[in-house]
Design goal:
Receptor-associated Protein, 5% strand, mainly alpha
């Protein structure tokens, strides 16, 4: 929320402006920290911003963070300080990211570390990002860490895009088929019903079924629409709840085709995240906590929490991971070898690439199976509609002769 203030600076000059803060007390605190003596402080009244009304539409995209990380690494490597580099990048960034970078710059100017400033925006910079930045600040390799983060985020986003892409085409075909059927049933078929009744033709079974569907759709379309909307809203709200989301994630794991893709993609993300954190020198206990947060499936996350608990009790990583039975055996074997030889980070990095390719191949295979199946279903549906309309036409032509 924005507050308009009038105050005197430490040098005695009058200052006016706006300050963003969560509450009036927070705004006062921020001005006092600058050394201002407040004269007036009032909340501004304005219409909500578009990004506040539609947070998903105007949220910062992962590709923006990837580009920011690479550009920041280049600027720091060139000898530019953190604050000037951030100010330069803010001028080039989009509105949402620019606003976040403005808050980060203000926090750094007030004495906060860059990692602490980023940690205040978890919706933009995930916990692994701010933690890695803290390591880079401590070791003096901030540019190297930023490039590692950019590469890691690119790989992770690639896995997510492949999974979503596999679902896009089937969903599009299904929606198109539903749309075509709806148009035929509600607009094309009703005029033919009068023709069929006028000639008193004997209607075949497919036509009777289609006419019944058409009659129901035209008579009760409003009721059906309301029911569908209510069901969709209730289903969406339920899935947003922890219990509903857990049941949905469990269903995804149990699906014959999609379950293996979920396991492979989560194995790739877990391996890649763990590898990059271990290579940065972060303790394994903290690594597990950060890596678990990157997994998208709640069932997988619960199993990994159990693995983390046993790890903290000194049981190692490979044995609890094997007992969880959530990831493929090869990953467990590579973790065991890595623990014995001290090459856990490199082994996990290899597994991350391997399982990412495996997930990609499985997605292509599933898409290849779904495409002809949907083609047959849509073809059968079109044939049914065509026969339902053409067969009575022949009956009418026969009666005219």
């Amino acid at each position: 929320m924005s507050y308009r203030y009038v105050a005197f600076t430490p040098s005695g000059k009058q200052a006016k402006g706006l300050i963003d803060a969560g509450s009036e007390g927070a705004a006062e605190q921020a001005l006092w920290e600058r050394g201002y003596r407040i004269v007036t402080l009032r909340a501004t009244r304005s219409l909500p911003r578009l990004d506040e009304l539609f947070p998903t539409l105007f949220s910062v995209k992962t590709r923006e963070i990837v580009t920011l990380s690479r550009q920041m690494a280049t600027l720091i490597e060139s000898g530019i300080a953190v604050i000037p580099a951030l100010e330069l990048l803010r001028r080039q960034a989009g509105r949402s990211l620019g606003r976040v970078l403005g808050d980060v710059i203000d926090a750094v100017k007030q004495g906060s570390a860059l990692s602490d400033a980023l940690r205040k925006h978890p919706q933009v910079f995930p916990s692994i990002y701010s933690r890695m930045i803290a390591v880079g600040e401590r070791t003096g390799n901030l540019d190297v860490v930023l490039r590692q983060l950019a590469t890691h985020l690119e790989k992770e986003q690639s896995i997510i895009k492949r999974v979503r892409g596999a679902m896009t085409y089937p969903a599009f075909v299904i929606l198109m088929a539903i749309g075509v059927v709806a148009i035929v049933v509600t607009t094309a078929l009703p005029p033919l019903m009068g023709l069929f009744e006028e000639f008193d033709a004997e209607l075949p079974l497919p036509t009777k079924i289609l006419l019944a569907v058409s009659h129901y759709a035209n008579a009760y379309w409003l009721h059906a629409s309301v029911v569908l909307v209510v069901v969709a809203v209730i289903g969406g709200l339920y899935v947003r709840q922890p219990k509903g989301r857990r049941q949905l994630d469990y269903a995804f794991l149990r699906m014959p085709l999609l379950g293996s893709i979920v396991v492979l993609s989560n194995a790739a993300r877990f391996s890649g995240t763990t590898a990059i954190l271990l290579r940065a020198g972060i303790p394994i206990s903290e690594v597990m906590n950060l890596a678990i947060d990157t997994t998208g499936n709640r069932i997988v996350r619960e199993r990994l929490r159990e693995v983390e608990e046993r790890l903290l009790r000194g049981e190692g990583l490979s044995k609890p991971l094997a007992d969880s039975k959530i990831f493929p055996p090869m990953l467990v074997q590579m973790v065991e070898v890595g623990e014995e030889t001290g090459t856990l980070d490199s082994n996990l990095e290899t597994m991350a690439g391997f399982y990412a390719n495996q997930a990609d191949e499985r997605i292509n295979a599933v898409t290849g199976m779904i495409t002809p199946a949907l083609t047959l279903v849509v073809g059968a549906l079109v044939a049914f509609i065509a026969l339902s309309i053409i067969m009575p036409m022949y009956e009418i032509m026969g009666s005219i002769e």
